[in-house]
Amino acid sequence: MSQIIFELSKPGRKAYSLPELDVPDQRIEDLLPGNEIRKEPAQFPEVSELDVVRHFTRLSKKNYGVDDGFYPLGSCTMKYNPKVNEDVSRLPGFALSHPYQPEELSQGSMQIIYELDKYLSEISGMSRVSLQPAAGAHGELAGLMIIKKYHEELGEHRRNKVIVPDSAHGTNPATATVCGYETVEVKSNPRGGVDLEELKKAVGEDTAALMLTNPNTLGLFDENIEEIANIVHEAGGLLYYDGANMNPILGVVRPGDMGFDVIHYNLHKTFSTPHGGGGPGAGPVGVRDFLVPYLPKPMIEYNEEEDRYYMDYDLPKSIGKVKSYYGNFGVAIKAYSYIRALGAEGIKSVAEHAVLNANYLMRELAEAYHLPFDQTCMHEFIITPKPFKDKGVRTIDIAKRLLDYGYHPPTIYFPLIIEEAMMFEPTETESKETLDSFIEAMKQIAKECVEKPEIVINAPHETEIKRLDEVTAARKPDLRWQG
User: Fold this and answer.
1) Of the residues 6, 250, 384, 476, which has the fewest C-beta atoms closer than 10 A?
2) How confident is the model at residue 277 (pLDDT cuts 50, 70, 90)?
3) Can you give the three-state secondary structure of 145-197, one letter per residue?
4) What's the rounded Cα separation, in Å, for the pair 433 and 314?
């Protein structure tokens, strides 16, 4: 194991040089209140530049990401981010611009936002899209705030319930609660979709909205989506589309055409901008025409006569700003670059190959594992280790054993409605060779589960850190180094 950088510390060593002070010399006591001033020096390690470089280089080699290998994390769409998108976002005219500089100096950036609004609106079947929300859950929050204000404008204050399927992402009921709504869960039918009879019982005069992911977290497209929309709309509620699983329907079917009124995107999933590591992400929220006045302000508009873009703050029904400045602009640039590079046919090809890869992987793994829903999937699917239950093998064991084979595990124990679930999403960016290698590893693990289950149950064996006590790690995390 590499040495901790604190342990390398020796008095007098340093790895930095500060520039000459170029501001008027002032005492710190004149700048900060006394209770904010540190009485003792901070305890930083004293190390050389070489020590620092080697330490962080070693750490970087222990990280795992989509640039290192296959990352089949279900419902997360961990696909490769083309590096050309990074290059475009770092062009000086974008990277060095300030969000509060005058409009006449921001025309190029404003054009990007305006055109991306148009592209995302067309892809989703919505009328307008705001790029302000910073992530998927933030987009959900903005979307429900729009729905809430719409109902309040109509005097429908009794609409205080949001319907959520039992297969929903956890952010859905959480977001509804944050917005002051009560959540009502509806069960799934035997084919993994919303149970229509249960939905009919759940809707009423107090229904504000149904939050739905389609395809859902089981990787299944709801065959009854038009009837579901009619049931909710006839009760006076609105349909909210959780865009986390948008990847397999791009260019094929649009949420607006299914009957949805509000949608959020995950640009850091569907449109191949970097994902994970704490962000930044982006969760644009789109709406149908009658909800446009409620979108966050400002909205960017185009004046044809003057050939200029401008920010429109004159939106009296708007829910207001939901993000400092105008959203995570750098992420929006990458999504814009991705869409422009692919074009309409390329966008559709993304969905087709995502579905093809998922069904290929599903059919191959179904030979060795239990497949709860034996039907065509979309971008992701669920299998379980049910065939090895008598051997004492659980989902967590298979996930840990995959680490020994050099793969990131799938999403596990979600959705909760499937016992011992493993959710796989290969995405469209993976080659058949990669999928075949992964299939071989999974089948080898299945063989071990039967012949030598103790190898799987005690995994991982090849990683630097072996199996942790996960309950203790979650409840009593040790996050600080102490010598």
Assistant:
1) 476
2) low
3) HHHHHHHHHCCCCCCCEEEEECCCCCHHHHHHHHCCCEEEEECECCCCCECHH
4) 54
Q: What is the mean pLDDT of residues 57-75?
A: 89
Round the CA-based radius of gyration of the chain to a whole number and report it.
Answer: 25
Where is average pLDDT lowest: 100-104, 160-164, 442-446?
100-104
Number of domains in the chain: 3
Q: How far is CA 373 from CA 316, 388, 433, in A?
A: 48, 18, 26
DSSP secondary structure string for all residues of 191-221: TSSB-HHHHHHH-STTEEEEEE-SS-TTS--
Judged by phi (left if over 0) then psi (alpha if -120 to 50, else beta), residue 236 lies in left
Contact 378, 245 (CB under 8 A): yes
Owning domain of residue 30: 5-61
Q: Which CATH number does the domain housing residue 308 bear?
A: 3.40.640.10
Cα separation, 335 vs 455, in Å, equals: 43
Q: Residue range 128-147: average pLDDT?
A: 96
Is the pLDDT at 1 greater than 60? The verdict is: no
Confidence at residue 482, expressed as pLDDT on a 0 to 100 scale: 73
pLDDT tens digits along 328-359: 999 999 999 999 999 999 999 999 999 999 99
Position 178, amino acid? V
Is the C-alpha dihedral spanning 258, 264, 268, 273 positive or negative?
positive
28: amino acid identity, one letter: I
Place of tokens 């008027």: 24
Kindly state whether residues 268 and 354 are assigned to the same domain.
Answer: no
The β-bridge partners of 286 are: 129, 263
Collapsing DSSP to helix, strand or coil, 304 comes out as coil
Q: Which of 342, 372, 395 is the last residue of a domain?
A: 342
Residue 352 forms part of a structural domain = yes
Find the CATH number of the domain harbouring 414: 3.90.1150.10
Amino acid at 133: P
Q: For residue 473, count CB atoms less than 10 angstroms from its CB and return exposed for 0-12, middle for 13-18, buried for 19 or more.
A: exposed
Tokens describing residue 416 = 């909760």
Identify the pLDDT of residue 41: 82
The count of C-alpha atoms lying within 13 angstroms of the C-alpha of 154, restricted to the half-sphere facing its C-beta, is: 13
The pTM of the full predicted model, rounded to 2 decimals, is: 0.91
- 276 token code pair: 């994970």
Per residue in 185-216, pLDDT (tens digit) is 999 999 999 999 999 999 999 999 999 999 99
